[in-house]
RNA sequence: GCUCGUAUAGUGUAGUGGCCCAUCAUAAAGGACUCUCAUUCCUUUGACCCGGGUUCAAAUCCCGGUACGAGCACCA
Protein backbone atom coordinates (compact mmCIF):
# COMPACT_ATOMS: atom_id res chain seq x y z
CA UNK A 1 0.00 0.00 0.00
CA UNK A 2 3.03 2.22 0.16
CA UNK A 3 3.44 2.20 -3.54
CA UNK A 4 2.84 5.51 -5.15
CA UNK A 5 0.73 5.65 -8.16
CA UNK A 6 2.22 7.39 -11.12
CA UNK A 7 0.41 10.52 -11.96
CA UNK A 8 -2.24 9.31 -14.30
CA UNK A 9 -1.71 10.55 -17.81
CA UNK A 10 -4.54 12.37 -19.45
CA UNK A 11 -6.57 9.97 -21.47
CA UNK A 12 -6.48 10.87 -25.11
CA UNK A 13 -8.73 9.69 -27.86
CA UNK A 14 -11.87 7.69 -27.33
CA UNK A 15 -12.59 5.85 -24.08
CA UNK A 16 -12.25 2.09 -24.07
CA UNK A 17 -15.09 -0.07 -25.24
CA UNK A 18 -16.59 -2.31 -22.57
CA UNK A 19 -16.14 -6.04 -23.13
CA UNK A 20 -14.33 -5.57 -26.38
CA UNK A 21 -11.97 -8.10 -27.83
CA UNK A 22 -9.67 -6.93 -30.55
CA UNK A 23 -10.70 -8.35 -33.89
CA UNK A 24 -14.17 -9.30 -32.71
CA UNK A 25 -15.91 -5.99 -32.51
CA UNK A 26 -18.83 -5.26 -34.81
CA UNK A 27 -20.31 -1.78 -34.92
CA UNK A 28 -22.86 -0.13 -37.08
CA UNK A 29 -24.09 3.22 -38.19
CA UNK A 30 -27.70 3.29 -39.37
CA UNK A 31 -28.96 6.46 -41.05
CA UNK A 32 -32.30 6.95 -42.71
CA UNK A 33 -31.47 7.66 -46.37
CA UNK A 34 -34.03 10.46 -46.57
CA UNK A 35 -31.20 12.75 -47.55
CA UNK A 36 -27.42 12.79 -47.66
CA UNK A 37 -25.39 12.98 -44.48
CA UNK A 38 -25.38 16.02 -42.23
CA UNK A 39 -22.82 17.31 -39.80
CA UNK A 40 -24.58 15.44 -37.00
CA UNK A 41 -24.47 12.12 -38.85
CA UNK A 42 -20.72 12.54 -39.12
CA UNK A 43 -20.50 11.89 -35.42
CA UNK A 44 -22.16 8.50 -35.76
CA UNK A 45 -20.00 7.47 -38.67
CA UNK A 46 -16.78 8.74 -37.21
CA UNK A 47 -17.14 7.48 -33.65
CA UNK A 48 -18.24 4.03 -34.76
CA UNK A 49 -15.64 3.99 -37.51
CA UNK A 50 -12.78 5.03 -35.23
CA UNK A 51 -13.71 2.28 -32.80
CA UNK A 52 -13.86 -0.25 -35.61
CA UNK A 53 -10.38 0.83 -36.66
CA UNK A 54 -9.01 0.82 -33.15
CA UNK A 55 -10.30 -2.67 -32.40
CA UNK A 56 -9.65 -4.19 -35.83
CA UNK A 57 -13.38 -4.65 -36.01
CA UNK A 58 -16.04 -4.19 -38.61
CA UNK A 59 -18.27 -1.26 -39.37
CA UNK A 60 -21.67 -1.87 -40.90
CA UNK A 61 -23.40 0.89 -42.80
CA UNK A 62 -27.09 0.13 -42.58
CA UNK A 63 -29.84 2.00 -44.34
CA UNK A 64 -32.90 2.14 -42.09
CA UNK A 65 -35.32 2.88 -44.88
CA UNK A 66 -38.54 1.48 -43.48
CA UNK A 67 -40.75 4.55 -43.56
CA UNK A 68 -42.29 5.21 -46.95
CA UNK A 69 -44.51 8.15 -46.08
CA UNK A 70 -43.28 10.35 -43.24
CA UNK A 71 -39.58 10.17 -43.96
CA UNK A 72 -39.46 8.63 -47.40
CA UNK A 73 -36.03 7.58 -48.59
CA UNK A 74 -34.33 9.52 -51.35
CA UNK A 75 -33.08 7.14 -54.01
CA UNK A 76 -29.88 9.01 -54.73
CA UNK A 77 -29.07 9.22 -51.03
CA UNK A 78 -28.02 5.56 -50.89
CA UNK A 79 -25.04 6.19 -53.14
CA UNK A 80 -24.28 9.61 -51.74
CA UNK A 81 -24.22 8.33 -48.19
CA UNK A 82 -21.84 5.53 -49.11
CA UNK A 83 -19.49 7.98 -50.77
CA UNK A 84 -19.72 10.42 -47.92
CA UNK A 85 -19.18 7.70 -45.35
CA UNK A 86 -16.07 6.56 -47.13
CA UNK A 87 -14.80 10.12 -47.38
CA UNK A 88 -15.38 10.71 -43.68
CA UNK A 89 -13.89 7.43 -42.56
CA UNK A 90 -10.97 7.17 -44.90
CA UNK A 91 -12.06 3.57 -45.56
CA UNK A 92 -15.12 1.81 -46.89
CA UNK A 93 -17.62 0.39 -44.43
CA UNK A 94 -17.09 -3.36 -44.20
CA UNK A 95 -20.71 -4.28 -44.80
CA UNK A 96 -23.66 -2.51 -46.34
CA UNK A 97 -27.15 -3.51 -45.28
CA UNK A 98 -30.37 -2.13 -46.66
CA UNK A 99 -33.33 -2.78 -44.39
CA UNK A 100 -35.81 -2.77 -47.26
CA UNK A 101 -33.97 -5.76 -48.72
CA UNK A 102 -34.36 -7.65 -45.49
CA UNK A 103 -38.11 -7.62 -44.95
CA UNK A 104 -38.40 -11.39 -45.33
CA UNK A 105 -35.99 -11.87 -42.42
CA UNK A 106 -38.05 -9.56 -40.27
CA UNK A 107 -41.26 -11.36 -41.21
CA UNK A 108 -39.84 -14.71 -40.20
CA UNK A 109 -38.97 -13.29 -36.82
CA UNK A 110 -42.48 -11.96 -36.45
CA UNK A 111 -43.73 -15.48 -36.89
CA UNK A 112 -41.29 -16.76 -34.27
CA UNK A 113 -42.53 -14.05 -31.98
CA UNK A 114 -46.19 -14.82 -32.57
CA UNK A 115 -45.62 -18.54 -32.20
CA UNK A 116 -43.59 -17.98 -29.07
CA UNK A 117 -46.43 -15.96 -27.59
CA UNK A 118 -44.37 -12.86 -26.96
CA UNK A 119 -45.96 -10.85 -29.69
CA UNK A 120 -49.51 -10.23 -30.75
CA UNK A 121 -51.56 -8.48 -33.39
CA UNK A 122 -53.28 -5.47 -31.88
CA UNK A 123 -56.33 -4.07 -33.60
CA UNK A 124 -56.87 -1.12 -31.31
CA UNK A 125 -56.51 2.38 -32.66
CA UNK A 126 -53.48 4.34 -31.61
CA UNK A 127 -55.69 6.52 -29.40
CA UNK A 128 -57.32 3.54 -27.72
CA UNK A 129 -54.01 1.93 -27.02
CA UNK A 130 -52.64 5.15 -25.58
CA UNK A 131 -55.38 4.96 -22.98
CA UNK A 132 -54.43 1.41 -22.08
CA UNK A 133 -50.81 2.41 -21.86
CA UNK A 134 -51.51 5.38 -19.62
CA UNK A 135 -54.01 3.37 -17.56
CA UNK A 136 -51.63 0.42 -17.30
CA UNK A 137 -54.40 -1.93 -18.40
CA UNK A 138 -54.18 -4.82 -20.83
CA UNK A 139 -55.50 -4.30 -24.31
CA UNK A 140 -58.16 -6.90 -25.26
CA UNK A 141 -56.02 -8.05 -28.21
CA UNK A 142 -53.49 -9.29 -25.72
CA UNK A 143 -55.54 -12.40 -25.07
CA UNK A 144 -55.81 -13.71 -28.63
CA UNK A 145 -54.51 -17.22 -29.12
CA UNK A 146 -51.43 -17.99 -31.12
CA UNK A 147 -53.61 -19.39 -33.86
CA UNK A 148 -55.65 -16.20 -33.99
CA UNK A 149 -52.55 -14.09 -34.04
CA UNK A 150 -51.08 -16.01 -36.94
CA UNK A 151 -54.32 -15.58 -38.83
CA UNK A 152 -54.49 -11.85 -38.11
CA UNK A 153 -50.88 -11.60 -39.19
CA UNK A 154 -51.87 -13.08 -42.54
CA UNK A 155 -54.70 -10.55 -42.71
CA UNK A 156 -52.19 -7.77 -42.24
CA UNK A 157 -50.03 -9.16 -45.01
CA UNK A 158 -52.77 -9.86 -47.55
CA UNK A 159 -54.47 -6.50 -47.38
CA UNK A 160 -57.50 -7.36 -45.27
CA UNK A 161 -56.43 -4.60 -42.90
CA UNK A 162 -55.71 -1.04 -43.87
CA UNK A 163 -53.04 1.20 -42.39
CA UNK A 164 -54.03 1.95 -38.81
CA UNK A 165 -56.25 -1.11 -38.49
CA UNK A 166 -53.65 -3.38 -36.92
CA UNK A 167 -50.09 -3.46 -35.65
CA UNK A 168 -47.88 -6.17 -34.24
CA UNK A 169 -46.83 -5.52 -30.67
CA UNK A 170 -44.14 -6.99 -28.50
CA UNK A 171 -45.67 -8.34 -25.32
CA UNK A 172 -43.85 -6.84 -22.38
CA UNK A 173 -45.88 -5.79 -19.36
CA UNK A 174 -48.51 -3.07 -19.21
CA UNK A 175 -47.55 -2.24 -15.65
CA UNK A 176 -43.93 -1.45 -16.40
CA UNK A 177 -42.86 1.75 -14.67
CA UNK A 178 -41.60 3.26 -17.89
CA UNK A 179 -44.63 3.89 -20.12
CA UNK A 180 -42.48 3.82 -23.22
CA UNK A 181 -41.83 0.13 -22.76
CA UNK A 182 -45.40 -1.10 -22.40
CA UNK A 183 -46.29 -3.49 -25.24
CA UNK A 184 -44.44 -1.46 -27.79
CA UNK A 185 -45.30 -1.58 -31.51
CA UNK A 186 -43.06 -3.60 -33.77
CA UNK A 187 -44.64 -3.49 -37.21
CA UNK A 188 -47.33 -1.46 -38.91
CA UNK A 189 -49.12 -1.29 -42.26
CA UNK A 190 -48.19 1.35 -44.80
CA UNK A 191 -50.10 2.17 -47.95
CA UNK A 192 -47.36 1.36 -50.42
CA UNK A 193 -49.77 1.62 -53.34
CA UNK A 194 -50.22 5.32 -52.66
CA UNK A 195 -46.67 5.75 -51.33
CA UNK A 196 -44.49 3.10 -52.92
CA UNK A 197 -41.02 2.65 -51.53
CA UNK A 198 -38.76 4.80 -53.73
CA UNK A 199 -36.41 1.93 -54.51
CA UNK A 200 -37.67 0.38 -57.72
CA UNK A 201 -36.88 -3.16 -56.57
CA UNK A 202 -39.07 -2.69 -53.51
CA UNK A 203 -41.86 -0.38 -54.65
CA UNK A 204 -45.21 -1.72 -53.52
CA UNK A 205 -43.94 -5.18 -52.71
CA UNK A 206 -44.65 -4.97 -48.97
CA UNK A 207 -47.53 -3.50 -47.00
CA UNK A 208 -46.33 -4.44 -43.56
CA UNK A 209 -43.17 -2.69 -42.42
CA UNK A 210 -41.15 -3.02 -39.25
CA UNK A 211 -40.64 -0.02 -37.01
CA UNK A 212 -37.18 1.04 -35.99
CA UNK A 213 -37.01 -0.69 -32.62
CA UNK A 214 -37.94 -4.06 -34.07
CA UNK A 215 -36.04 -3.87 -37.33
CA UNK A 216 -32.92 -2.58 -35.67
CA UNK A 217 -33.04 -5.15 -32.89
CA UNK A 218 -33.42 -8.09 -35.24
CA UNK A 219 -30.81 -6.84 -37.65
CA UNK A 220 -28.26 -6.14 -34.96
CA UNK A 221 -28.62 -9.71 -33.81
CA UNK A 222 -28.43 -11.16 -37.31
CA UNK A 223 -25.30 -9.17 -38.06
CA UNK A 224 -23.62 -10.03 -34.79
CA UNK A 225 -23.30 -6.44 -33.66
CA UNK A 226 -21.32 -6.31 -30.42
CA UNK A 227 -21.43 -2.61 -29.59
CA UNK A 228 -24.06 -0.01 -30.29
CA UNK A 229 -23.04 3.62 -29.97
CA UNK A 230 -25.83 6.05 -30.64
CA UNK A 231 -27.65 9.15 -29.45
CA UNK A 232 -29.14 9.12 -25.98
CA UNK A 233 -32.55 9.81 -27.47
CA UNK A 234 -32.47 6.09 -28.19
CA UNK A 235 -32.01 5.03 -24.57
CA UNK A 236 -35.58 3.80 -24.25
CA UNK A 237 -35.09 2.08 -27.55
CA UNK A 238 -32.35 0.04 -25.93
CA UNK A 239 -34.68 -0.84 -23.07
CA UNK A 240 -37.42 -1.92 -25.46
CA UNK A 241 -35.01 -3.98 -27.50
CA UNK A 242 -33.57 -5.65 -24.43
CA UNK A 243 -37.04 -6.89 -23.55
CA UNK A 244 -37.33 -8.36 -27.04
CA UNK A 245 -33.89 -9.94 -26.80
CA UNK A 246 -34.90 -11.57 -23.54
CA UNK A 247 -37.90 -13.13 -25.29
CA UNK A 248 -35.66 -14.48 -28.01
CA UNK A 249 -33.01 -15.52 -25.52
CA UNK A 250 -30.36 -13.35 -27.12
CA UNK A 251 -27.66 -11.23 -25.50
CA UNK A 252 -27.94 -7.53 -26.07
CA UNK A 253 -24.85 -5.66 -27.35
CA UNK A 254 -22.95 -3.21 -25.17
CA UNK A 255 -24.29 0.30 -25.57
CA UNK A 256 -22.92 3.81 -25.34
CA UNK A 257 -24.68 7.10 -25.94
CA UNK A 258 -23.87 10.63 -26.88
CA UNK A 259 -25.93 13.71 -26.13
CA UNK A 260 -27.48 16.29 -28.37
CA UNK A 261 -25.18 18.55 -30.32
CA UNK A 262 -25.91 22.01 -31.54
CA UNK A 263 -23.60 24.26 -33.44
CA UNK A 264 -23.74 27.92 -32.40
CA UNK A 265 -23.76 29.08 -35.99
CA UNK A 266 -26.40 26.64 -37.24
CA UNK A 267 -28.70 25.62 -34.45
CA UNK A 268 -30.17 22.15 -34.95
CA UNK A 269 -30.12 20.20 -38.16
CA UNK A 270 -32.96 18.10 -39.42
CA UNK A 271 -32.62 16.26 -42.70
CA UNK A 272 -36.37 16.43 -43.30
CA UNK A 273 -36.39 20.20 -42.85
CA UNK A 274 -33.41 20.69 -45.13
CA UNK A 275 -35.09 18.56 -47.76
CA UNK A 276 -38.18 20.75 -47.61
CA UNK A 277 -36.15 23.92 -47.83
CA UNK A 278 -34.18 22.66 -50.80
CA UNK A 279 -37.34 21.56 -52.57
CA UNK A 280 -38.83 24.99 -51.86
CA UNK A 281 -35.85 26.59 -53.56
CA UNK A 282 -34.41 28.20 -50.44
CA UNK A 283 -31.09 26.48 -51.05
CA UNK A 284 -29.23 25.42 -54.14
CA UNK A 285 -29.02 21.78 -53.20
CA UNK A 286 -27.55 19.51 -50.56
CA UNK A 287 -24.08 20.96 -51.08
CA UNK A 288 -25.22 24.55 -50.63
CA UNK A 289 -22.47 26.10 -48.49
CA UNK A 290 -25.01 27.45 -46.02
CA UNK A 291 -26.31 23.99 -45.14
CA UNK A 292 -24.84 21.85 -42.34
CA UNK A 293 -24.29 18.89 -44.63
CA UNK A 294 -21.21 16.84 -45.31
CA UNK A 295 -21.49 17.80 -48.96
CA UNK A 296 -21.39 21.47 -48.01
CA UNK A 297 -18.48 21.06 -45.63
CA UNK A 298 -16.36 19.04 -48.02
CA UNK A 299 -17.28 21.36 -50.87
CA UNK A 300 -16.06 24.35 -48.98
CA UNK A 301 -12.75 22.90 -47.99
CA UNK A 302 -13.17 21.19 -44.64
CA UNK A 303 -10.97 18.09 -44.58
CA UNK A 304 -12.33 14.72 -43.50
CA UNK A 305 -9.53 14.32 -40.98
CA UNK A 306 -10.49 17.63 -39.39
CA UNK A 307 -13.99 16.28 -38.88
CA UNK A 308 -12.56 13.07 -37.45
CA UNK A 309 -10.36 14.97 -35.00
CA UNK A 310 -13.23 17.22 -34.07
CA UNK A 311 -15.66 14.42 -33.24
CA UNK A 312 -13.21 12.16 -31.49
CA UNK A 313 -12.17 15.08 -29.33
CA UNK A 314 -15.79 15.60 -28.28
CA UNK A 315 -15.94 11.92 -27.44
CA UNK A 316 -19.07 10.10 -26.33
CA UNK A 317 -20.37 11.99 -23.33
CA UNK A 318 -24.09 12.09 -22.68
CA UNK A 319 -24.03 15.81 -22.12
CA UNK A 320 -26.02 18.04 -24.44
CA UNK A 321 -23.57 20.44 -25.94
CA UNK A 322 -23.33 23.47 -28.18
CA UNK A 323 -20.06 23.81 -30.01
CA UNK A 324 -18.65 26.71 -31.98
CA UNK A 325 -17.45 26.16 -35.52
CA UNK A 326 -14.17 27.80 -34.50
CA UNK A 327 -13.12 24.51 -32.97
CA UNK A 328 -13.64 22.66 -36.24
CA UNK A 329 -11.82 25.38 -38.14
CA UNK A 330 -8.89 25.19 -35.81
CA UNK A 331 -8.61 21.46 -36.51
CA UNK A 332 -8.82 22.15 -40.21
CA UNK A 333 -6.06 24.76 -40.14
CA UNK A 334 -3.75 22.34 -38.34
CA UNK A 335 -4.26 19.86 -41.16
CA UNK A 336 -3.96 22.09 -44.18
CA UNK A 337 -1.62 24.94 -43.29
CA UNK A 338 1.70 23.15 -43.76
CA UNK A 339 0.79 22.19 -47.31
CA UNK A 340 -1.41 25.06 -48.36
CA UNK A 341 0.13 27.15 -51.14
CA UNK A 342 -0.11 30.87 -50.56
CA UNK A 343 -1.98 32.76 -53.22
CA UNK A 344 -2.91 36.39 -53.70
CA UNK A 345 -6.46 37.52 -54.27
CA UNK A 346 -6.94 41.26 -54.68
CA UNK A 347 -10.35 42.51 -53.64
CA UNK A 348 -11.46 45.80 -55.13
CA UNK A 349 -8.25 45.99 -57.16
CA UNK A 350 -6.56 49.23 -58.16
CA UNK A 351 -3.97 49.21 -60.95
CA UNK A 352 -0.69 50.92 -60.24
CA UNK A 353 2.07 51.53 -62.76
CA UNK A 354 5.51 50.67 -61.55
CA UNK A 355 8.11 53.38 -61.89
CA UNK A 356 11.80 52.65 -61.53
CA UNK A 357 11.59 48.87 -61.69
CA UNK A 358 13.93 47.07 -64.08
CA UNK A 359 13.11 43.42 -63.39
CA UNK A 360 10.78 41.62 -65.77
CA UNK A 361 9.55 39.33 -63.02
CA UNK A 362 9.88 38.51 -59.34
CA UNK A 363 9.97 35.07 -57.83
CA UNK A 364 8.41 34.60 -54.43
CA UNK A 365 8.05 31.56 -52.18
CA UNK A 366 4.85 29.59 -52.34
CA UNK A 367 4.95 28.86 -48.62
CA UNK A 368 6.75 30.98 -46.01
CA UNK A 369 7.78 28.09 -43.77
CA UNK A 370 8.92 25.51 -46.28
CA UNK A 371 10.69 25.49 -49.62
CA UNK A 372 9.08 22.19 -50.62
CA UNK A 373 6.31 23.97 -52.42
CA UNK A 374 8.74 25.97 -54.55
CA UNK A 375 8.24 29.49 -55.79
CA UNK A 376 5.79 31.38 -57.94
CA UNK A 377 6.86 33.76 -60.66
CA UNK A 378 5.09 37.08 -61.01
CA UNK A 379 5.51 38.62 -64.43
CA UNK A 380 6.15 42.36 -64.64
CA UNK A 381 6.45 42.91 -68.44
CA UNK A 382 3.67 45.47 -68.43
CA UNK A 383 4.81 47.18 -65.24
CA UNK A 384 1.28 47.15 -63.84
CA UNK A 385 0.37 45.69 -60.48
CA UNK A 386 -2.88 45.37 -58.54
CA UNK A 387 -3.34 46.18 -54.90
CA UNK A 388 -6.44 46.41 -52.74
CA UNK A 389 -8.06 49.84 -52.67
CA UNK A 390 -8.25 49.75 -48.91
CA UNK A 391 -4.47 49.53 -48.66
CA UNK A 392 -4.08 52.78 -50.58
CA UNK A 393 -5.02 54.72 -47.50
CA UNK A 394 -1.30 54.56 -46.98
CA UNK A 395 1.07 56.08 -49.49
CA UNK A 396 4.17 54.25 -48.41
CA UNK A 397 3.68 50.53 -48.89
CA UNK A 398 5.76 47.42 -49.17
CA UNK A 399 4.70 44.97 -51.84
CA UNK A 400 5.32 41.68 -50.12
CA UNK A 401 8.48 39.86 -51.22
CA UNK A 402 9.10 42.59 -53.80
CA UNK A 403 10.08 46.00 -52.48
CA UNK A 404 9.21 49.29 -50.83
CA UNK A 405 7.19 51.72 -52.92
CA UNK A 406 5.84 55.25 -52.60
CA UNK A 407 2.41 55.65 -54.14
CA UNK A 408 1.51 58.80 -56.05
CA UNK A 409 -1.21 59.27 -58.67
CA UNK A 410 -1.66 55.58 -59.41
CA UNK A 411 2.05 55.17 -59.79
CA UNK A 412 4.22 53.08 -57.54
CA UNK A 413 7.67 54.58 -57.31
CA UNK A 414 10.33 52.09 -56.46
CA UNK A 415 12.24 52.92 -53.28
CA UNK A 416 14.27 49.86 -52.40
CA UNK A 417 14.42 46.10 -52.59
CA UNK A 418 15.10 45.76 -48.90
CA UNK A 419 12.92 47.11 -46.14
CA UNK A 420 13.74 50.73 -45.49
CA UNK A 421 11.21 51.42 -42.75
CA UNK A 422 8.19 49.96 -40.99
CA UNK A 423 5.76 50.63 -43.80
CA UNK A 424 2.81 48.31 -44.13
CA UNK A 425 3.37 45.04 -46.00
CA UNK A 426 0.59 44.21 -48.41
CA UNK A 427 -0.20 41.41 -50.83
CA UNK A 428 -0.37 42.21 -54.51
CA UNK A 429 -0.25 40.67 -57.94
CA UNK A 430 0.62 41.83 -61.44
CA UNK A 431 -1.49 42.44 -64.47
CA UNK A 432 0.49 39.88 -66.44
CA UNK A 433 0.17 37.18 -63.83
CA UNK A 434 -3.44 37.48 -62.73
CA UNK A 435 -6.94 36.80 -63.97
CA UNK A 436 -10.33 38.24 -63.23
CA UNK A 437 -11.71 35.92 -60.62
CA UNK A 438 -14.15 35.57 -57.78
CA UNK A 439 -14.04 34.53 -54.17
CA UNK A 440 -17.16 32.74 -53.01
CA UNK A 441 -18.02 33.38 -49.42
CA UNK A 442 -21.12 33.11 -47.23
CA UNK A 443 -21.88 36.43 -45.60
CA UNK A 444 -24.94 36.85 -43.38
CA UNK A 445 -26.68 33.85 -44.88
CA UNK A 446 -26.03 34.91 -48.48
CA UNK A 447 -23.66 33.34 -50.94
CA UNK A 448 -21.54 36.23 -52.17
CA UNK A 449 -19.14 36.31 -55.08
CA UNK A 450 -16.44 38.88 -54.46
CA UNK A 451 -14.81 39.98 -57.71
CA UNK A 452 -11.12 40.60 -57.86
CA UNK A 453 -7.79 39.68 -59.35
CA UNK A 454 -6.46 36.23 -58.64
CA UNK A 455 -2.84 35.35 -59.06
CA UNK A 456 -2.22 32.90 -61.93
CA UNK A 457 -1.82 29.32 -60.75
CA UNK A 458 -1.80 25.75 -61.97
CA UNK A 459 -3.40 24.30 -58.87
CA UNK A 460 -5.97 21.55 -59.37
CA UNK A 461 -9.51 21.90 -58.06
CA UNK A 462 -10.04 21.27 -54.37
CA UNK A 463 -6.52 22.26 -53.40
CA UNK A 464 -6.64 23.95 -50.02
CA UNK A 465 -4.90 27.31 -50.23
CA UNK A 466 -4.12 30.16 -47.91
CA UNK A 467 -5.38 33.38 -49.40
CA UNK A 468 -2.85 35.90 -48.21
CA UNK A 469 -4.18 38.28 -45.58
CA UNK A 470 -7.71 36.91 -46.08
CA UNK A 471 -7.98 33.34 -44.84
CA UNK A 472 -8.19 29.79 -46.15
CA UNK A 473 -10.04 28.49 -49.15
CA UNK A 474 -10.02 25.88 -51.86
CA UNK A 475 -9.49 26.21 -55.56
CA UNK A 476 -12.82 25.74 -57.35
CA UNK A 477 -11.65 26.70 -60.83
CA UNK A 478 -8.84 28.57 -62.48
CA UNK A 479 -10.66 31.79 -61.70
CA UNK A 480 -12.60 30.89 -58.58
CA UNK A 481 -11.79 30.28 -54.96
CA UNK A 482 -14.24 29.08 -52.33
CA UNK A 483 -13.60 30.55 -48.92
CA UNK A 484 -13.33 28.01 -46.11
CA UNK A 485 -12.66 30.01 -42.95
CA UNK A 486 -10.39 32.66 -41.50
C1' G B 1 -48.18 13.73 -15.73
C1' C B 2 -45.03 9.17 -15.91
C1' U B 3 -40.08 7.33 -17.16
C1' C B 4 -34.99 7.97 -18.22
C1' G B 5 -30.50 10.77 -18.48
C1' U B 6 -26.80 14.74 -17.74
C1' A B 7 -24.55 18.67 -14.67
C1' U B 8 -16.05 20.56 -14.21
C1' A B 9 -13.26 27.66 -16.84
C1' G B 10 -16.88 31.58 -22.39
C1' U B 11 -17.08 26.71 -25.30
C1' G B 12 -15.72 21.58 -25.23
C1' U B 13 -13.08 17.91 -22.42
C1' A B 14 -9.72 14.72 -18.65
C1' G B 15 -10.58 13.05 -14.00
C1' U B 16 -14.22 6.78 -10.99
C1' G B 17 -12.25 8.50 -2.85
C1' G B 18 -6.03 10.85 -1.24
C1' C B 19 -1.78 12.13 -7.19
C1' C B 20 -6.49 17.84 -8.02
C1' C B 21 -5.83 25.11 -4.47
C1' A B 22 -8.19 20.06 -10.89
C1' U B 23 -5.98 18.09 -17.35
C1' C B 24 -5.88 19.30 -22.38
C1' A B 25 -7.93 21.88 -26.43
C1' U B 26 -10.48 26.00 -28.17
C1' A B 27 -11.85 31.11 -27.42
C1' A B 28 -10.23 35.87 -25.29
C1' A B 29 -6.11 39.26 -23.77
C1' G B 30 -0.87 40.29 -23.95
C1' G B 31 3.91 39.14 -25.98
C1' A B 32 7.92 36.66 -29.22
C1' C B 33 8.94 35.17 -34.21
C1' U B 34 7.56 36.33 -39.16
C1' C B 35 8.42 40.44 -45.85
C1' U B 36 0.36 37.80 -44.75
C1' C B 37 -4.65 40.08 -40.53
C1' A B 38 -1.39 33.16 -41.70
C1' U B 39 1.50 29.38 -39.21
C1' U B 40 4.58 28.51 -34.83
C1' C B 41 5.99 29.64 -29.76
C1' C B 42 5.42 31.93 -24.73
C1' U B 43 2.39 34.23 -20.82
C1' U B 44 -2.21 35.58 -18.49
C1' U B 45 -7.42 35.37 -17.29
C1' G B 46 -10.88 31.54 -16.12
C1' A B 47 -14.45 25.91 -13.55
C1' C B 48 -15.95 21.06 -9.91
C1' C B 49 -24.88 23.46 -10.14
C1' C B 50 -26.89 24.09 -4.83
C1' G B 51 -27.75 21.90 0.16
C1' G B 52 -27.04 17.97 3.35
C1' G B 53 -24.65 13.21 4.54
C1' U B 54 -20.79 9.00 4.58
C1' U B 55 -15.33 9.20 5.36
C1' C B 56 -9.23 10.63 8.52
C1' A B 57 -10.01 12.27 3.25
C1' A B 58 -15.14 13.76 -2.03
C1' A B 59 -15.09 16.86 -8.41
C1' U B 60 -15.24 11.58 -7.51
C1' C B 61 -19.90 7.71 -3.09
C1' C B 62 -25.22 8.50 -0.93
C1' C B 63 -29.74 11.53 -0.24
C1' G B 64 -32.57 15.91 -1.41
C1' G B 65 -33.13 20.17 -4.44
C1' U B 66 -32.40 23.00 -8.98
C1' A B 67 -31.40 23.43 -14.18
C1' C B 68 -31.23 21.41 -18.87
C1' G B 69 -32.30 17.40 -22.30
C1' A B 70 -34.70 12.94 -24.05
C1' G B 71 -38.62 9.02 -24.36
C1' C B 72 -43.93 7.89 -23.53
C1' A B 73 -45.22 8.01 -32.58
C1' C B 74 -48.85 2.88 -36.39
C1' C B 75 -40.86 8.51 -37.33
C1' A B 76 -35.81 7.30 -37.61
Any overview of this molecule?
The protein is an alpha/beta fold and 486 residues long. The protein has three domains: 26-100 and 257-330, 3-Layer(aba) Sandwich (Rossmann fold), CATH 3.40.50; 102-210, Glutamyl-tRNA Synthetase, Domain 3 (Glutamyl-tRNA Synthetase, domain 3, Alpha-Beta Complex), CATH 3.90.800.10; 342-485, Ribosomal Protein L25, Chain P (Beta Barrel). It has eleven helices and 27 strands. The chain has helices spanning 39-54, 75-89, 103-116, 126-135, 146-158, 212-223, 235-248, 271-279, 294-299, 304-314, 325-336; strands at residues 26-29, 58-63, 95-98, 119-122, 167-170, 185-189, 208-210, 227-231, 254-258, 261-263, 321-323, 342-343, 345-347, 349-355, 361-365, 375-379, 384-388, 396-399, 403-408, 411-416, 424-426, 429-430, 434-443, 446-455, 464-467, 471-477, 480-485. The strands form seven sheets. A seven-stranded mixed sheet has the order 12-25-26-27-23-24-13, covered by helices on one side. β8 (227-231), α7 (235-248) and β9 form a beta-alpha-beta unit. α3 (103-116) runs antiparallel to α5. It is elongated and about 100 Å long. The protein starts with 25 loop residues before the first strand and ends with a strand. Mean pLDDT is 94; it is low at 1-7. The protein binds one RNA strand of 76 nucleotides through α4, β6, α7, β11 and α11.
